[in-house]
Amino acid sequence: MGALLSNLRNTVIIGFLLAIALIVAFYLKQSGGGAFDIRAALHEGALRWLHVLSGIMWIGLLYYFNFVQIPTMPSIPDELKPAVGKFIAPKALFWFRWAAMATLATGILVAWSRGYLLSAYTLGATENFAVAGHTFIGIGMWLATIMWFNVWFVIWPNQKIALGLVEAAAEAKPKAARLAMLFSRTNTMLSVPMLAAMSMSQTMFG
Length: 206
Ligand code: HEM
Fold this sequence. Notes:
Layout (H helix, E strand, L loop, with lengths): L1 H4 L2 H23 L7 H35 L8 H33 L3 H5 L10 H31 L9 H34 L1
The structure holds protoporphyrin IX containing FE.
């Protein structure tokens, strides 16, 4: 087991196999009674699962930046700072931006599979605001989509300058780092109402 767990790829594969075993076991147990809809499980259920997995990867790294890396940087001795900037941050930013992309894609697919993609993204306008649940999840989807935009079009381009991954004048670096930090803070703030909409939608509106 130790050998398996020391390899990250194998660890993730085992996690997925355990999840699939869980789904299959409950399918076999429940399918006779008809209480388990395998089509729904494979479509909406699996999409939700992948959506929450990628969302955790994205927001987990957002919180790592805001609660751990950014506040700790000033107290790291100057000679050790490049280790963070050159090795840890680029890797974290890779998973951060692609997890944001996967979360957006799976979120759109969940909304589409539930049949309310357009009404949610128009905040219920296409149905004369008759379905409050669609407006509610639509607000969450817009908050998350704005956060995704910030990641790809503000945070990542400015982090590339701040970390020296692209050519830029020396005086541009602190400005880019501050802008990336402020938008990262904005996303941390927006993540709270965004997650309220995501996670309460089912409970409040079914
Ligand atoms: C990027 C754009 C996003 C879109 C378009 C989107 C879309 C959706 C949709 C349509 C649902 C189903 C709501 C329902 O009818 O119950 C949902 C649920 C959910 N989303 Fe998102 N989402 C996004 C981002 C995020 C992020 C960043 C997270 C962070 C973890 C997240 C976490 C969740 C959770 C936990 C649920 C509840 C799953 C459940 O109750 O089964 N979403 N999302």
